[in-house]
Amino acid sequence: TLFNECGEQTPVGSSLAFSVADTVNAGFNYVIGYGCSTDTVRYFHNGGNGINSWQWNLDEGQQSNLQNPRGLYSSFNEKTVQLAVSNGFCTDSSQQKIALDNYLKAGFSVFEDNCPSELIPFTNSSEGKILDYAWTFGDGGNSDSTNPHHIYAPPMRETPYTVTLTVTDSFGCTNVAQKQILIYSSCFLAVPNAFTPNADGKNDFFKPLNAIKTEGLEFSIYNRWGGLVYKTKNWKQGWDGKINGVPQATGTYVWLLRYTDRDTKKAVQQKGTMTLIR
Fold it and tell me: Of the residues 7, 23, 109, 237, which has the fewest C-beta atoms closer than 10 A?
């Protein structure tokens, strides 16, 4: 005896029609086509057991209702792809992580200010499946090392050079990084004993010279009464001989220079006097 949902006995001879359909499977396959700017991934589903609906989420905002769609990706990293299928009665869903591992980016680090006739290190920070490195140093020199060193000849005056790194990966793709560095004619650190802030374009600012290999620099200037008139942490900037926009009179001033040597990591302190000339 059968009872319905109300607990009542089903009358003899009763019948109920119902449908049966095969279960479905949302499992899928894919093939990656690697590119230098865009990767193409083709997805495949067998469509068995009467499946007539596909809902794909292909990551990066891409969706499709095709049985075998394709996804285009310009960001090379791990993608999460989802598929939901139905045959009108049964449904199923699946998800896969797809690694697009052809990310390529050239990069390197180097000190902005450098000395002539010294080995300058270039530290590679490129990412990707790199096979070849091609460096050009802007003076006719080149290298295929991962982390090269290069020596620049002494220029007549501080000279900028553009350093270029081109990397090539296992897919034949390339990426380029460039940086400009300065090579100085000398690395001898000195502080002048006078300056003439008369706006003639010559010796108008008082500052340390060639403080190329300094870290944590502090440069201070004091008047004859010990009052601070100027302070900076940038050796390329200097005092223009003014306090709050007011030109200061001719006289003797005391300067104090503190820094850490970039090579030896030793703390250095120097002091002296200079004359402001009007």
Answer: 7
Q: What is the rounded (10 degree) CA torsion for 203, 208, 213, 218? A: -140
pTM: 0.79
Which residue, among 173, 163, 69, has the nearest Cα to 129 in the 3D structure? 173
Alpha-carbon distance 241 to 185, whole Å? 27
Task: Give me the average pLDDT of each 10-residue run along the chain (278 residues).
Answer: 78 74 93 96 95 97 98 97 96 97 97 96 97 98 98 96 97 96 95 94 94 97 94 96 92 97 96 95
Token couple for 208: 């340390």
Per-residue tokens: 169:
């990966």
The pLDDT value given to residue 25: 97
**pLDDT score for 80:** 98
* Contact assessment for residue 124 and residue 108, using Cβ atoms and an 8 Å cutoff: yes
Q: In sequence order, what are the residues at sequence separation of 6 or more whose Cβ sits closer than 8 angstroms to the Cβ of residue 118?
A: 151, 187
Identity (one letter) of the amino acid at 218?
E
**Burial classification of residue 276, based on how many CB atoms lie within 10 Å of its CB (0-12 exposed, 13-18 middle, 19 or more buried):** buried
